[in-house]
Amino acid sequence: xxxxxxxxxxxxxxxxxxxxxxxxxxxxxxxxxxxxxxxxxxxxxxxxxxxxxxxxxxxxxxxxxxxxxxxxxxxxxxxxxxxxxxxxxxxxxxxxxxxxxxxxxxxxxxxxxxxxxxxxxxxxxxxxxxxxxxxxxxxxxxxxxxxxxxxxxxxxxxxxxxxxxxxxxxxxxxxxxxxxxxxxxxxxxxxxxxxxxxxxxxxxxxxxx
Length: 209
Known about the structure:
elongated, oxidoreductase activity, Flavoprotein-like_sf, CE1759_FMN_reduct, FMN, FMN reductase
């Protein structure tokens, strides 16, 4: 299965990328997935140009195709002013509005304080609901105080949320119905169509030749 991780961290290294990697690793522990990471920071200029030209450049087009063809998605953004970053929103704005329909998505975010954790529910979840994605119940938020200070590299609370969300996404990936091929209309030969249009012989009830 193909799992794409979209991360909108602006610095390198960033806590946003760190959280994205932790979530992807947790899913990979539960299922055999091919993970691809999309760093939006490296695509910022291409995304801006797409709004001007209406057409994504080669590199951005590849990442859009990867997201569209993925079996599942992890989307992680830093929180600015109580919502997702502009770069994060801009990337999903350039996607076709059917690209995420029915696709399992795990949403996550990072921020300076826990006060911004509700941005996951009032900003990110409605965004992906609008795009008709299937968002897992557990959203993961990591504040500055969540990194370190516990008995392991992550505090107990964050580690539990990561595990729970990864388990929910894995369940959706494993039980997702396979995509159906679009139905193809049967092609009726021209002679058969022509025969159906020939008038009946009033006497015999057979087609007039």
